[in-house]
Amino acid sequence: MPQLIPFYFVNQLSFSFLTLLALIYIFSKYILPLFTYQQVVRMYITKLSNK
Amino acid sequence: MASKTAAAAVDFARIYSKLGLGKETVASLQAFRKRHADAQRIHAQLSSQPTTVDVAHYRNILKNKSIVDEAEKILKDFKPVTYDVGAHVKAIEVFEAKAVENARVTEKKIDEELKDLQATLANIEEVRPFDELTVDDVGSAHPHITKAVETMVKKGKWTVPGYNEKFGNLSLM
């Protein structure tokens, strides 16, 4: 039944959405803040050493 | 009593010089010691004096024997007044208990301070050079940085103003 072919991709679609959501969550919560943290700390200790 | 033997073994010269006591404390401690020494001296003086009266001697010297008899009678009838020292002893014991407790509290405080100082000393000894410092070290030394970063991220502020000017930008895009 060729009219059903698009539905064969539903599992792939749903899994890719789920993976995307998980990646966004993990990056925004655990990985990307570390870069900001590092930048803040760098600025802080640079200011400390310039004092 | 353990506290009494401890009090007897106190090295006062060390207490005056080493413990860093306040002037008032040292002065009152010295006054107390002086009082104690005076009391001991007076006690020794008085206890070395004779407590008996040689009545026969006076009987030989004096002509008026009836006076001697009377004096002897009065002497025999004399009874020293007894004081109830229980209250004083109790007060002293209460004072001692308080002093011992104070000393214990001070000891505990000093112990805590010592522990703090030891921690500081360990910190100083284990200090690393500046280029071995990690981000987490700085974060744990200044927790307000961690909090600031959290609020920055919550507000959607991901960059630090002036960072790129100072350290350059390594991103390819």
From TrEMBL, chain A:
Pfam families, alphabetized: Fun_ATP-synt_8
Membrane-related topology note: Single-pass membrane protein
InterPro entries with a match to the protein in the record: ATP_synth_su8_fun
Transmembrane annotation, as ranges: 6-27
Annotated keywords: ATP synthesis, CF(0), Hydrogen ion transport, Ion transport, Membrane, Mitochondrion, Transmembrane, Transmembrane helix, Transport
GO molecular function: proton-transporting ATP synthase activity, rotational mechanism
One cellular component term from this protein's GO annotations in UniProt: proton-transporting ATP synthase complex
Subcellular location(s) per record: Mitochondrion inner membrane; Mitochondrion membrane
Superkingdom, natural source: Eukaryota
Subunit structure: F-type ATPases have 2 components, CF(1) - the catalytic core - and CF(0) - the membrane proton channel.
Known role: Mitochondrial membrane ATP synthase (F(1)F(0) ATP synthase or Complex V) produces ATP from ADP in the presence of a proton gradient across the membrane which is generated by electron transport complexes of the respiratory chain. F-type ATPases consist of two structural domains, F(1) - containing the extramembraneous catalytic core and F(0) - containing the membrane proton channel, linked together by a central stalk and a peripheral stalk. During catalysis, ATP synthesis in the catalytic domain of F(1) is coupled via a rotary mechanism of the central stalk subunits to proton translocation.
Family named by the database record: Belongs to the ATPase protein 8 family.
Protein name, UniProt field: ATP synthase protein 8
Organism: Schizopora paradoxa
Automatic annotation (TrEMBL), chain B:
Pfam families: Mt_ATP-synt_D
Keywords for this protein: CF(0), Coiled coil, Hydrogen ion transport, Ion transport, Membrane, Mitochondrion, Mitochondrion inner membrane, Transport
Protein's UniProt keywords contain Membrane: yes
Domain of life: Eukaryota
Function text: Mitochondrial membrane ATP synthase (F(1)F(0) ATP synthase or Complex V) produces ATP from ADP in the presence of a proton gradient across the membrane which is generated by electron transport complexes of the respiratory chain. F-type ATPases consist of two structural domains, F(1) - containing the extramembraneous catalytic core, and F(0) - containing the membrane proton channel, linked together by a central stalk and a peripheral stalk. During catalysis, ATP synthesis in the catalytic domain of F(1) is coupled via a rotary mechanism of the central stalk subunits to proton translocation.
One term of GO molecular function: proton transmembrane transporter activity
TM helices/strands, residue ranges: none
Protein's GO biological process: proton motive force-driven ATP synthesis
Cellular location(s): Mitochondrion inner membrane
Family membership: Belongs to the ATPase d subunit family.
Coiled-coil segments on the chain, per record: 100-127
Protein name: ATP synthase subunit d, mitochondrial
SUPFAM superfamilies for this protein: ATP synthase D chain-like
GO cellular component, as recorded: mitochondrial inner membrane; proton-transporting ATP synthase complex
Xref: InterPro entries: ATP_synth_F0_dsu_mt, ATP_synth_F0_dsu_sf_mt
